[in-house]
Amino acid sequence: MELPITRPTYVSYGDEVEFDKFLEKLARKKHNGFIRITHASSEGHIIIKDGTPVAASYDRYMKSEAMEKILEIVNKMETLIELFELKESQIDYIIDINKVYKLEPSFSRKLKPPKIEEHPKITPIKKPTPKPKEPPTEEKPTPKPKEPPTEEKPTPKPKEAPGLAETTKKPLNREEVMKKYGLKDIDEEEVEKVLENYKGGAMTTIDIERVELTLMNKIKKAIIGIPNIKSVEVMVFLENMPELEGDMKVLIERENTGLLSRLMGGVMKEEELKEHIIDIIEMEIKKTFRGYPEIIEKFNVNIEIH
Amino acid sequence: MTRVITIASGKGGVGKTIVAANLGVALASYGERVIVLDADIAMANLELVLGMEGKSVTLHDVLAGKADIEEAIYEGPEGVKVVPAGISLEGLRNVKLERLEEVLSQLLEDTDILLIDAPAGLEKDAITALAAAEELLLVTTPEIPSISDVLKTKIIADKLDVKIIGVIVNREQHDKTFLTVDEIETILEVPVISVIPEDPEISRSAAFGEPIIIKNPKSPASNAIMKLAADLLGKEFHPIEPDKRGIISKLIAGLTGRR
Questions:
Q1: Does the distance separating the beta carbons of B99 and A174 come in below 8 Å?
Q2: How many Cα atoms within 13 Å fall on the side-chain side of residue B157?
Q3: Which of A22, A206, B126, B226 has CA atoms 20 to 30 A from the CA of B50?
Q4: May I ask which residue range the UniProt record assigns to the signal sequence (chain B) (predicted)?
Q5: Cβ–Cβ < 8 Å for B1, B131
């Protein structure tokens, strides 16, 4: 509930006050304000207009359900009751902004003391009809004050256990709430970007074997495209522990080239070929480990040309 | 079977580590064999919250390949086991996150629950902690920036197929400027399973390196955390009542040795 919490005009523990009598007193005084009820980590509020409870919330509960929950715990020793006063001019506004918690008129009537001057001894909740008092009798011997959602589910699985959302009856419109607070979902592209970054350097053992094979094939395919290369063998060994690094061995067999070709400059010299192959290898490594370019420094490449 | 639960928030400073530390101790107090691992290797402070700073071997050393995980496990309150991350920016350079998965698998033996305190944000370290989880607890405060960040974390977790247990709303205050529980549930599309009220005792207990559930078990925050632990285990929760005795009677009880 949205309430102006100021200094309470009255504070008491549940066992120190008879709540029905307390309500009766408020009814007599035609009190305008609200009561805050705190029990363990749960909190509830009852808005009182002209001495009559008109709206209630407790934990996840609303309206009459909240009122029933409050009545279950309100007389307990560990429950704290605080009374707050509101001006007559404020009360309607407060009720309006908390209208989702408004008690059904029938429930309000039940709680309202029926003509105090005629039946001075009748308390608002207790005597005339036992209905509103039913929840406390359900309480029985268990001292547990607030565990209704978990009680229903014997399974210890957390997702099923608390299920507090299920108890919230009033569904809000997500779009409206998001708009109200200027929030938006991150788009698919951004999600992919985040996950891409994550995948960059973290690899499992299974990944390593796959990457080794992929890298091997890519480099082999690229080298075989160079003119006058008869055959290529590429071996890649990746090590992920303690840090990601690799060893690569490339064995190349060249075709026999004639004197004329060599004189015409159509054949790369051994050093030139090695440099060219290293360029190819670096490019393939970079493509494979996108987002983790430092890996280049961690590769030991050995090229043998025959 | 070991449950691997990551506690993540998105935004830093929402009390995630304090929740992780206290929840770990709370779960251990119910008789579970619990390990809390601080995966926040850049801004480690689980050890500070639990009063365990200055340990010689930490997760840093394990991830750098300098130590075995067994050497980095320490016993904390209620028998909870703790793997501190180690507070050393110097050591951070050598840390290999790739090792985290292997480290986690070693921790699963003889453990009922492995709680991972994930780093804030969506950097690689945070995502690694998310991806390692089977289940996820999201921690947020009821403020817009926290909700905005936790929403991103939730979306990433969904993408990684991590089962989200629910949201813990920490430092809840009755202030109109904050989001309500209903609004938080609507935005995140995940149930709020615990609301921990704002409690200055929490900061105080963290400063003393003592979990609030031990330092002040009667506080509303302690009760909320104990209830959350009970819910996670499907156990019954009985709140610890606040002490209502007056100062005089407490004094008399103290003097006469009665508590």
A1: no
A2: 33
A3: B126
A4: none
A5: no
Is ipTM > 0.85 here?
A: no
Contacts of A148 by beta carbon, 8 Å cutoff, 6+ apart? A69, A167
Q: Is the pTM of this model over 0.80?
A: no
Of A159, A185, A197, the CB nearest to B165: A159
Burial label for A120, CB within 10 Å (0-12, 13-18, 19+), is exposed
Q: Which of B65, B233, B237 sits opposite A241 (nearest CB)?
A: B65
H-helix or E-strand spanning residue A98: none
Instruction: Write the DSSP symbol of residue A237.
Output: E
Report whether B242 contacts B218 (CB < 8 A). yes
Token representation of residue B201 = 């005792």
Q: How many CB pairs under 8 A join A and B?
A: 157
Q: Provide the edge-to-edge strand list for the sheet that holds A245-254.
A: A229-239, A245-254, A299-305
Tell me which chain A residue has its CA closest to the CA of residue B95.
A243
Cα–Cα distance for residue pair B259/B251, rounded to 1 Å = 10
E-only strand ranges, chain A: 10-13, 33-39, 42-49, 52-58, 61-62, 79-85, 229-239, 245-254, 299-305
**Nearest Cα to Cα of residue A227 among A285, A287, A272, A286:** A272
Q: Tokens 């400063």 label which residue?
A: B207
